[in-house]
Every structure is written in structure tokens, then in C-alpha cells.
Amino acid sequence: MALGAALALLVVASPASAGNGGAAPTAAPGAGSGGAATTVATAAGNGGRSGGAPADRPAPSGGRASSRRTGGAAVGVAPRRAKPPRRAAPKRRAAARRPARKTPPRRVAAPSTPDPGTVAGRFPVVGSYTFGGEGSRFGAGRPGHVHQGQDVAAASGTPIVAPVDGTVTWKANQPKGAGIYIVVRGAADGRDYVFMHLKRGSVVVAPGQAVAAGDALAQVGSTGASSGPHLHFEIWVGGWQASGGAPIDPLPQLQRWAAGTA
């Protein structure tokens, strides 16, 4: 009892709580243990809080640090890899257009019309000339057709005359073929005489006009599909380009006119 009274007096007389506005210290008696263990908790210097954790305590161990303030990845978590941009699919090249196939001209077989013979007349080219080679002959091969006349090569501008009396029945221009051409129908034999590749501006006759042997018709030229100045000369039996009509080889007739034996 004397020891307990002494401790009570000590607590009452202690100046620890004076002037700090804090809680009074507490003493836990060690009754029955033969001694005392005094525990004093003070809030001096911390704003009057007691028994709490300090304001700047570290984050508890084992937790994750927040990434909101730093913008970085959370501790212990691997950052996500950014996905690579998708590559645009390569554009397919437009297939090259194949040129349209041109329909070849209908092949015309060499006619088998018998030669009716020769008639009197004169050679149609007035000046130097040549009959050329095999490619200039009647029946020679051509792309898509056969040659239906005889070529007479001569200088451009060489005069061309009517070989027989007759009437001009046709005058036209075929830029990709015969060029400028005329047709004369013989008065005596009814055959058609065709003159092709004439020089532009040289034709001096018109359809329906009557001509006599030796009358001027035009000049040698190279219009249409031509490799050089020449007269392409044809003779047709049964009408030029008419139903039932057909060309014949004109070379025998030309040779006799040239020789003056027709």
C-alpha cells in the first residue's frame, strides 16, 4: 500500500502534461509482479495525435506502386509492346489488254475463167515501163488474198491511156487498197479494164464518159496500198466485181499490145 500511494502522488505531481495540450501519460501498474513497468505515450510535437502511424510512412511492402502519377508501368509488370502498323495489301496491276485480233481478209482463190483471147488495142502506159518480178504477176500471194492483176512499174506521172474504145463506168478511191482507180468497159468485147494506184489529181475522165483507144485517162501514181509508183491493171470477164464476174490474167493481152501484134 505504501508503494501504490507513492506512485499516485508521483503522477499527480508530474509536469509532463503541462503546456503541451496533449494527453496525460498513462501508467500501467505491475501489480502482483513485484515491480512496475511504466509506459508513457506523448503526442508532443506531432499535432496532438497519438497512437497513429507517422504521416510520411512508406507504402506497405509487397504491394504495387501506383503508376497514375509517374505514367510508368507498374512495378513487376512487363510493359505491353505496341502493335506494328498493318501493311496495306499490294495493289494488283491491271492486266494488260490484249489487242483485238483482226479478222484476216477472206482469201480469194485465183479464178479459173478461160482466157477469151485478145482484142485489138494499144498498150495503156505511154513511156518506159517494166512488168516486174513474180510478185507482180496475176495470182501472186498477198496477205489474205491473191493478186488479181498485173503490175506495170513506171515513173510517177507517166501518162495512161485507154487501150480500147469504151465507157468509163467507175471512179473511186480506196486509201488502204487500190488507191485512186477507174474502170472502163470495152465497147467491142464487153470486158472491164481496171486501172489502180493512179496519181492524185491526174484523172481526167468521169463515169459515163465515152473514150476512144489512146485517149488520156490519168497518170501513174502510188496511192493506196502501194510500195512505189506503178499501174495495177486488171481485166474482168462478166463484169467487174459483179455476180458471175471474174478476173483473168492480163499479161498475155498486155504483151500483145506492147508488141503491136494484137
TrEMBL record:
Q: Where is the composition biased (Basic residues)?
A: 80-105
The UniProt annotation puts the region (Disordered) at 16-121
M23ase beta-sheet core domain: from which residue to which, for each copy? 146-240
Provide the alphabetized UniProt keywords. Hydrolase, Signal
Bias-annotated ranges (Low complexity): 16-44, 58-79
User: What Gene3D superfamilies does the entry give?
Assistant: Glucose Permease (Domain IIA)
Pfam families for the chain: Peptidase_M23
In alphabetical order, the GO MF annotations are: metalloendopeptidase activity
Could you name the domain of life of the organism this protein comes from?
Bacteria
Signal sequence span is 1-18
Q: What is this protein called?
A: Murein DD-endopeptidase MepM/ murein hydrolase activator NlpD
